[in-house]
Amino acid sequence: MTASSTDRSARLRWGVLGVARIATTKVIPGMQRGRWTEVDAIASRDAARAREAAAELGIARAYGSYEALLEDPDIDAVYIPLPNHMHAEWTTRAAEAGKHVLCEKPIALTAADAEQLIEVRERTGVRIQEAFMVRTHPQWLGALAIARSGRIGVARSITGYFSFFNDDPANIRNVKAYGGGGILDIGCYLVNTARMIFEGEPRRVCALIEESPATGVDWMASMILDFDGRHAAGTCSTQLAHGQRITIAGTMGRIDIEIPFNAPPDRPCRIFVEDAPSGAVPDRHAVEFETCDQYTIQGDLFSRAVLDGRPAPYPLEDSLENMRVIDALFRSGRSGEWERVAPERGQPARSRH
Length: 353
Hints:
alpha/beta, nine-stranded mixed sheet, six-stranded parallel sheet, 27% strand, globular
């Protein structure tokens, strides 16, 4: 489906595969406020749940299977908030049905699976994007602009923290077969935003990972990413008190992002910039960004790209690089050593330097 960017009546018609909480409480309401999105259908393997979600959200059609929604000729694109282990499969099936796809992170469980999705995109000709909403939030774009400007000097260190508490063994985030665990669920944000700010890829990583004896999933992980002399370090956990924060440190100042990932849609966001040139007293002040919904922005940018015949705003190639880092973190957790992110073919992944 294509349309001129001047056709103000055009909207991309969306369906949603699943009734996950993030979809029904955050993403769908955000998309429904968009200028270029229209959420017309929702599906669940439980038809009653689909009808209930449709009624609560004012969605026109409800389906009792994902397949039925994909067969709807009036749906142009699908949003996929299914459990992690289902992302690659249903992204592929949606693309093969001719639907554009916005899929929750992680786009796949391994880099190999993410690489396959690039082939699917090329073969089907649809847009496929991983839903890293932070990539288009004004506070992150503002932080990136400040880092690029030289205002804080040369950015050399990023530290991050992201956690919540959920020890329910039945919850999908604690089921290993479903791709549960902290790294895939929230650690991926620490990796992604470090790569965004440094505008490059780490050459090696190391990780200390704690796994639950009961479930086998990683409930706490600390990581270091080596960007050739620039460092990103962070901890993620699914069994610590809720918290999140990012600090970007440069040679002449720093940026602190107050609520980096769960940015509130009902009030302004703030980042704090500290100018600290050599020999001067640090000057810390807030930069405020107007109230916005990151899910509205994400949905509208993707919809406009499809309507205008342009590539997806956040390319799958970047998602593949993110998964390569995550793969290396898991390898390091097992080996206890530094691991190269993208080892050369035929060469061992481990680095002892």
